[in-house]
Amino acid sequence: MPEREPLWHLAEDATVGIGSTPGTDEGAAPASRGLWGSGFFVAPGWVLTCAHVLVDGSGRRRPGAGDGQADVGLYVDGRVLPGRLAYCMPMPRRSVPRSGGAGDRETFASAVEGIVPDLALIALLEPVERERCVWLTDRPPGEFARDDGGGIIGRFAPAARDGGPCDAERLTCGHGSTKSTRIKFGLSVDMRPGTSGGPLVDLERGEVVGVVKARFREGGSGLAVAVSALRGLTPEAHLEGAPDLGDEPYHELMRQHDAWHWRRQHPEHSDGEPTWIDVQRELPRRRGTWDVLDRLDALHRLAGVPGPAAPAVVRQLARDALGRSLGHTVAPVSWRDGHGMLHGFGGRDDLAVHLRYLSLVAGWITAHAGGPEAAGAARELYEAVMQRGQALGAKERAGLGSLRPRPRAVLLEFDHAPPPAYLDEGEVETRQYTWSLFKGYDDGRWELAVPPPVEGRPFERARGEALDALAEVLAAADAARPVEDPVPLEVALPGVEFAATVADWEIREDPRPSSPRSPMGIDRPVVLRDIERRGQALDRDSAAALTERWQERWRGLVGAPRLLPLRSAAAPAPLRRPDLLRAPHGSVPVLCQQVAEGPGHDAVQRAVGLGYPVALWRADGHRIADGCGTRCTAFHDGVEGLLDRGGDAVRTLPGRLWRLRSEQTDAWVRGVVLFYDSPDHPLPQAAGRPLEPPGARPDRKQP
Predict the structure, then answer these.
(1) Other C-beta atoms within 10 Å of 107: how many?
(2) CA 500 to CA 438: how far, in whole Å?
(3) Would you call 38 helix, strand, or coil by DSSP?
(4) What pTM did the predictor assign?
(5) pLDDT tens, 568-612?
(6) Cα–Cα distance between 591 and 568 in angstroms, integer?
């Protein structure tokens, strides 16, 4: 059919011959020379084929296949490019079992049928002049639409040609049966040797559904491995010394595949030639409300979010989106696989079904995948769903639900306010503060929960007002979290107030006015942050330099095998600038001196100015002149035990200190201030907030 010709061309263009590179098969048997089989590009620089292609007909491994040498030849555009076998399922063996074949099958074909799953990935070691890549289906194995609904592509070299260019073979086929990841197809003519490893194409949908595996001797049928078998690709299949795809090779391969096709369709990257998406849009297949461009965008977005915890999660979300059970036997291991499970089930409701699935994925990531990057990706996916969902009817729009992420933290911040425009007679000018309450989320958003007062007030008055309002905000945030995981409280103060014992501030235990009060640090993690790091009072260059030092120190803490308490080399004197500059990454300043004023205050401000994100000190620290005592020894011993952890030590520090406070078994934690200012979650910017200088008031005397 004419509409299939562009599809044949795309599949043929991405199919390569696989064989020896020139000069590496000298001395090998004639059957081992030249082309061994076929393969096809599934991502830039990655060729998929069958594992048995790397084993010759006598059961011996091909020369160089799997021995760490770059002597797998990829026949592309009339050239032979070097490749390296990188992944194999199973590994090439010196011999293939040759017994037990049925009488009507070739001996080798019978043996090959027993190799499961029979897939291999070859990494191209030199770039091709022009990238190409097939479109891999995301569907589980299924049936072709009709008897001639499938096609296979193979590469073979004519008998008179030894090396160099290879010709392509096209064959149409029909579907016979599917069992797990095996597809049996019917043929009207026999396949030539060398077709193994080539693509099996669904000509109705315009996608590659399998890898050609073997032919039967009578020539009327053949076997293919469904591309869903790639879901079993793990690091264990990797060959040492070859290029790799990281800790999750299947996810990374599919990410590169979907990113390439998305980029190829983008107008900025178009070369004027038709793409797989262009061809799919023109095929006379069943059209639904979820079209190929929707799918392209969805798979691109799903490739950019954290993967699921287990196949059961994917299956459950797909089932919830559809509203019924799914009986597929091949376990889905990625969000892409779950998307493929919905093909053909939605009917006229395709759009609503797929959008529900994407919305559920965004919600799952928000609830289970930590970190601002993951939360941000989930939010972007959700916003895309909401935008596309405008095309749904009223009932279907309501069925998409909403993304309600649980708060990561509640922020109580105190900032300097302009001084009063006038003072009453005898009134002494004091520092003025305004306060605000925010709820923060993992994607970096801050939601204003209680706006700041218009006028400033002295610190103690501002603190009292803020604590009265805090109970209700904390209760609402806690409602979205498990009881054993209360929302942390972050208190942002200017440096002049760092002596405040924020964890000991008392608030109502619930929003009722008659509720008892208790220290905040008993009920939840409480940390101190520096509001001056927001950079409002700094010029651009100074703020950028401070941020760079801050982020560098944070990366050092996250990557450190152990957190190191940093004390002055000349105790009881406080930390000096050279001490802080020379300290290795992973260091946490620890002070037992008072920080309200004097050298201890200077040491704390110095550490913050040099970018330290984490520090601990005693709010009731001693004066330098008094020297250290037994309380200091208990404090330093306790802090050393708190910090002496590997791995996630810095990220779990607020929670671990909270548990010590709540148990009230260690006296040294009383009055301890944890300064914990992560650049992963910078404070909300002050620009545009409703703070104005006070105006004239009738109850005050005009100056």
Answers:
(1) 15
(2) 20
(3) strand
(4) 0.68
(5) 766 666 788 988 998 988 899 999 888 888 888 999 999 998 999
(6) 9
